[in-house]
Amino acid sequence: MKFTRVFAFMALAGLAGSAYATNGYFGHGYGMKAKGMAGVSTTNTDDAFGGANNPASMAYAGNRLELGVDLFSPRREASRSGSGFVDGSVDSDSNYFLIPELGYNKMINPNLALGVTVYGNGGMNTNYSAGQPASTANCGFVNPGPAPYNLLCGNGRLGVDLMQLVIAPTAAFKIAPNHSIGVSPLLGYQRFKAEGLQAFGVANAAGGNLGYDDSFGYGVRMGYLGKITPTVTIGAAYASKMKFDEFDKYSGLFAEQGSFDIPSNYNMGVAWQATPAVKLALDYQRINYSDINAIANPVASPGALGDNNGPGFGWDDAKVWKLGVEYKHSPKMTFRAGYSHTNSPIKGDATCATTTNCGETTFNILAPAVIEDHVTLGFTHTLASGSEVTVAYMHAFKNDVSGADQFGGSTKIQMYQNSLGIQYGWKM
Q: What does residue 275 show for φ and ψ, rounded to 5 degrees?
């Protein structure tokens, strides 16, 4: 095994910015075979991405190395109206991102597999231009400095950049010929910066932006896979909350003095080999954003920014249904398609008579993760050498959410997405 390939790509993945914002800030899938089936992955046993999906699947994956990269294009727009200041509409300028991923698996013996998966999360990579009119000196907040203002009335450009990298060493063991368990310690690195939030006190001593901060964290994912009949496979996996160091620079932005952990999540799935050529698979995934105060606390929380009970993004838990189909056209060509649906974690109240979701759309200009529906297509071509080329395409349909804010106006945020990925797999 050429380990230099593995570690070189892990380094590349660590340097790449992540821009996923499909199911909240989780990707719609991990590994191109899963991405071609709308993210269905709990029962997949033909790739090395179990560390991101279901560690138990690696017991059946064989010896393989897979390198993939996605060209991801999210299109975000935000607008404000009726507030009497800083009204207008603007698109995010950051529209294209390259997102790499890696999977490696080695069968130590017929019952034991060791491997590693490298993947990323993100989704708050917004970059709105300045240029809103200076309709009042203070924009209804503290003095943010000279014009031009942005939609939240800070200085210059507005946006945030979040990248989360997870390295998941994996061990999987067959406890019986058709049943396996697996575990993946999760080692995480994340990096964050915000721009244009001076009106909220997020600034350095000179009134400028704070720049990047980073932190490290850890967690664990566990899974089970069972082939209960010759044609039916079931699986389940659970990932704990990944505990990270605080973003010290942003202790006055994120609740709990800069804490920003990755939420716990779990997935369950079933696959049916309807015919030798056709497989149908269904997954359910739940992402517990309510674990993380910085994400789940209401924007109208009573505390100050950075307090334990301070404002967050107001996100609800994400509940995701994924349906995929795989068709083996020939020994060399396999086609895939899929559809998934989730709830937007962002809501909005028509008025601020109640404070449950008041101001939520306004604060989520920074992270308009409102996608609910995806469709995907994909294929794998097996080369004469036995290696594989897998391609996956995803379209996330445009969705928007509107809501009132505390300043008498209304904000609408919207997004749609496309991605095209390619993966090369070596069987060894």
A: -140, 170
